[in-house]
Design goal:
The structure holds 2 protein chains of 2 kinds.
Chain A (H helix, E strand, L loop, with lengths): L14 H12 L4 H19 L2 H12 L2
Chain B lengths: L22 E7 L3 H12 L4 E4 L13 E3 H10 L2 H7 L5 E6 L2 E7 L11 E3 L2 H12 L6 E4 L3 E8 L2 E8 L2 E12 L6 H5 L5 E15 L11 E6 L8 E7 L3 E8 L5 H4 L2 H12 L5 E14 L4 E2 L2 E3 L5 E2 L7 H20 L7 H27 L4 H13 L4 H6 L36 E2 L2 E2 H5 L4 E5 L12 E5 L3 H7 L3 E5 L5 E6 L5 H11 L10
Parallel strand pairs in B: 1-2, 1-10, 2-7, 4-12, 10-17, 21-22
Antiparallel strand pairs in B: 3-6, 4-5, 8-9, 9-10, 11-14, 11-15, 12-13, 13-14, 15-18, 16-17, 19-20, 21-23, 23-24
Helix pairs in contact in B: 1-4, 1-8, 2-3, 2-8, 8-9
The chains are: A mainly alpha, B alpha+beta.
The complex binds flavin-adenine dinucleotide.
Flavin-adenine dinucleotide binds next to α1, β8 and α8 of chain B.
Chain lengths: ~60, ~525
C-alpha cells in the first residue's frame, strides 16, 4: 500500500450515492464511449487533486492487477 | 436438526355456530410475521383483533434469516426479543472473496452500549413460532383463526366486511379496519386493483439450507462468507452464513439464462455445495429458486384498508430489508391505529403512517436495488468498475465501503415529516431519530421507554415542565446516555421509540411541550395566548 494515498474513507456515507451516480453516467453507453468518459474523468479529477506526488501514488496503485 | 412445522388447529368460529359476535375493531389478513406482530402490538395498546390465515403452519422453509437491531428492539417491546436472542446466531467475522482469493475480512464488534446486536440469524419459522406463542398470551385480545381464507371484501367509509372461506363453511365478519398483511401476492391488493409495479431483476437465485454438523469455518465462531465470481459456479455471487440447529444458508446467484427448475435438482446442487464445504457430511434441508422484485404501492392507507409488510412493498433480500422493513411498519402503525380506535386521535393520524413508512420503503428499495446492481453488473463497464472496487478493497478502506453485498437494514429517520416538531436546537438528537439504546442501572434505556408517549429529561430537571398524563423518565449522570442525547435536554418520545420533539431544558416552555404532543397526535395546534 502506498503511503501517499489517503488512508481514511473520505466519501463516508456518500459512497453508495457516488457509485450510483457513476453507474448512471455510464448507462446506455458503448464500451468505447464509457472508456472515453473515464479518461475525461481521470483528467478532471487529476486537476482537482493538483498534487503530483499523490497522483503518482494513485497511478501506481491503479496499475496493480 | 430439521424443523418440524407444528400444525395449528382449526377451531369452529362463533359465526359458524350461529352466534353473532358483532363487530371487530381490527381484522388482520395473514398470520405471517407482520400480521402476528401487528396483533401483539395492538393488544399491548389495548385493542382487540382477529387474525385470519389461509394456512395452519408457520413459514415453510426458512426464508428470512437476518433480523436487524431495530427489529430485535421492536420484538423486545412486543415480548419475544429474549427468545429470539437466545436461539439466534450472532456472527462476528465476515470474509469477502473475489474468485479464489480472500479480499479482506472484518470483525463486527458488538456495541456494548446497546442491548441488541447489529443483527442475528434466525429462521423465519422460529420467529413466527415465537410470535404465535406470544399471541396466545392475549386470549382476550387476539382471536387467531387458522385455515380461514379471505376471499373477498366490501369496503365502506366506516368499515369493511370480509368474506371468509373455511372447510366447515363460509362466513362474513365486520371490522372497523382491515389490515392487509397477506404478503407479496396480496389477494386484497389485487381485488382492489391497486398498482404494484417496480423493477424485477432477471437473475435467479438458488437458495439452499443445508444441515451440517461440522462447521466450514476455521474457528468455532460463526462467520459470513461472500463471494464475487465464486470459483465453484458460473454465477456472479454466492453467500454462506450460519443459522441455529447447524443449518447453513447458501445463496447462489445463477445467470439470467439459467433454468431454475434444472438448477434446483440435487445432481446440480450437490456438486456446487461440495466445492464450498469440502467432504463434510451434509443434508439438504430446503431448496428454492427465486427471482426478486422491488415494488411498492403508491399509498399504504386506503380508507379502512391498510397495507402492512410485503403486501405494501417488496424488496430483493440483499440487506434483509423485507421482514425488517415490515416490522417497522407495525411499530409505526400500532400506536396510531390504537389512538384512532380509542378516539384519542383523528383518522388523519393514519396518514402519517402512510407518509413515514412509504419513505422507509423507498429507502429500503433504493438500498436493495443498489446492492442488487452491484452484484449483477448490467454492462461490461459496470463489471469493470465492480472488479476495480474489489481490487482496491484489498488495501483501500474507501473501496471496502463501496463493496455492496447488501446494506444491512437500519431504521430511517423521520425528520421533516409533519408529526415531528422541527428542530429547536442543534444539540442532542434531531426529532425523527429512532432512539438509540443505552445501558442504565440494572437495565436498558429502550426497555424503560416502553411503548407509550414519554417525556425524557436528561440532566438537570426543572419544575413545571411536565405534560399531564404523560409518563416521565429522568436520567442523571449517565455518560452513555449523554453521549448520544446530550446534557440538559428534554425529549418527547413517540410510542414507537422515535424522538418527536427535542428541547434544551432551559428553553422547553410548557406550551411548547403541549404543542409538540398535539402535533405528534396530528391534532391542530392551538395558538397559545400570551
Ligand atoms: C429467500 C428469502 C430470503 C429472505 N430473507 C430475509 C431476511 O434475511 N430478512 C428479512 O427481513 N426479510 C427477508 N425476506 C423477506 C421476508 O420473508 C418477508 O418480507 C416477510 O415474510 C414478509 O412478511 P409478511 O407477514 O408481510 O408476509 P408473509 O410472510 O408472506 O405472510 C403472509 C401471510 O398471509 C397469509 N395469506 C395470504 N393470503 C391470504 C388470504 N387470502 N387469506 C388469509 N391469509 C392469507 C399467508 O398464508 C401468510 O401466512 C426474505 C424472503 C425470501 C423469499
Amino acid at each position: 500500500m502506498n503511503s501517499r494515498l489517503t488512508p481514511e474513507d473520505r466519501l463516508q456515507q456518500h459512497g453508495d450515492d457516488f457509485y450510483e451516480l457513476l453507474m448512471k453516467t455510464h448507462e446506455g453507453l458503448e464500451f468505447e464511449q464509457s472508456a472515453a468518459v473515464n479518461a475525461r474523468l481521470v483528467l478532471i479529477l487529476a486537476n482537482e487533486i493538483g498534487n503530483l506526488d499523490i497522483l503518482a501514488a494513485a497511478l501506481a496503485r491503479a496499475a496493480e492487477e | 436438526m430439521h424443523y418440524e412445522n407444528r400444525q395449528y388447529p382449526f377451531k369452529t368460529p362463533p359465526e359458524l355456530k350461529g352466534e353473532a359476535p358483532g363487530k371487530y375493531s381490527v381484522a388482520i389478513i395473514g398470520a405471517g410475521p407482520i400480521g402476528l406482530a401487528m396483533a401483539i402490538d395492538l393488544a399491548l395498546h389495548g385493542i382487540r383483533s382477529i387474525i385470519l390465515d389461509d394456512n395452519n403452519v408457520v413459514s415453510v422453509g426458512s426464508r428470512a434469516i437476518c433480523w436487524a437491531k431495530r427489529t430485535l428492539e421492536i420484538f423486545d417491546r412486543l415480548g419475544v426479543g429474549d427468545r429470539m436472542m437466545e436461539k439466534g446466531v450472532t456472527w462476528k467475522v465476515g470474509r469477502l472473496f473475489h474468485g479464489e482469493k480472500e479480499v479482506y475480512n472484518f470483525d463486527l464488534l458488538p456495541d456494548e452500549a446497546h442491548k441488541m446486536p447489529a443483527f442475528i440469524n434466525l429462521q423465519q419459522y422460529y420467529a413466527e413460532e415465537y410470535l404465535v406463542d406470544r399471541v396466545n398470551d392475549f386470549p382476550d385480545f387476539i382471536d387467531l383463526r387458522w385455515l380461514s381464507k379471505v376471499t373477498g371484501e366490501d369496503i365502506r367509509d366506516d368499515g369493511v366486511t370480509l368474506h371468509v372461506q373455511t372447510a366447515e363453511g363460509d362466513y362474513q365478519i365486520e371490522a372497523d379496519y382491515a389490515l392487509a398483511c397477506d404478503g407479496a401476492k396480496s389477494g386484497i391488493r389485487n381485488r382492489m386493483g391497486l398498482r404494484f409495479e417496480g423493477h424485477t431483476f432477471e437473475e435467479h437465485f438458488l437458495i439452499t439450507d443445508i444441515e451440517m454438523a461440522e462447521p466450514p469455518f476455521e474457528s468455532s465462531s460463526p462467520e459470513r462468507w461472500f463471494w464475487f465470481k465464486p470459483p465453484f459456479h458460473s454465477g456472479q455471487s454466492a453467500l454462506l452464513h450460519k443459522q441455529p440447529d447447524d443449518i447453513y444458508r447458501i445463496d447462489l446467484q445463477l445467470g439470467p439464462d439459467a433454468d431454475p427448475i434444472e438448477e434446483s435438482k440435487s445432481e446440480h446442487v450437490i456438486p456446487r455445495l461440495r466445492q464450498i464445504v469440502g467432504d463434510r457430511e451434509f443434508k439438504i434441508d430446503w431448496v428454492s429458486v427465486y427471482s426478486f422484485t422491488c415494488a411498492m404501492l403508491e399509498r399504504f392507507v386506503h380508507g379502512r384498508v391498510i397495507f402492512v409488510g410485503d403486501s405494501a412493498h417488496v424488496v430483493s433480500p440483499f440487506g434483509a430489508r423485507g421482514g425488517n422493513g415490515g416490522i417497522q411498519d407495525v411499530d409505526n402503525l400500532g400506536w396510531k391505529l390504537a389512538a384512532v380506535l380509542k378516539k384519542e386521535a383523528d383518522p388523519a393520524l393514519l396518514d402519517s403512517y402512510d407518509e413515514e413508512r412509504r419513505h422507509g420503503a423507498i429507502e429500503n428499495i433504493m438500498n436493495s436495488s443498489r446492492a442488487t446492481s452491484f452484484m449483477t453488473p448490467k454492462s461490461k463497464m459496470e463489471a469493470v468498475f465492480r472488479d476495480a472496487v474489489l481490487n482496491l478493497a484489498r488495501d483501500q478502506p474507501f473501496a471496502r465501503h463501496l463493496v455492496n453485498s447488501g446494506r444491512l437494514s437500519v431504521p430511517c429517520s423521520l425528520e421533516g415529516y409533519p408529526l415531528q416538531t422541527p428542530r429547536t436546537t442543534t444539540r442532542g438528537l434531531a426529532p425523527g431519530t429512532p432512539c438509540p439504546d443505552a445501558p442504565l442501572e440494572g437495565g436498558w434505556l429502550l426497555n424503560k421507554l416502553g411503548g407509550e408517549f414519554l417525556l425524557l429529561t436528561i440532566g438537570e430537571k426543572k419544575a413545571g415542565k411536565v405534560l399531564p398524563g404523560i409518563r416521565e423518565l429522568h436520567i442523571k449522570d449517565n455518560p452513555d446516555v449523554v453521549a448520544h442525547y446530550g446534557e440538559n435536554m428534554i425529549y418527547l418520545i413517540r410510542p414507537d421509540q422515535h424522538i418527536v420533539a427535542a428541547f434544551e431544558t432551559s428553553a422547553a416552555e410548557p406550551e411548547a411541550l403541549d404543542a409538540a404532543l398535539a402535533r405528534a397526535m396530528s391534532k391542530p395546534v392551538l395558538e397559545t395566548i400570551r
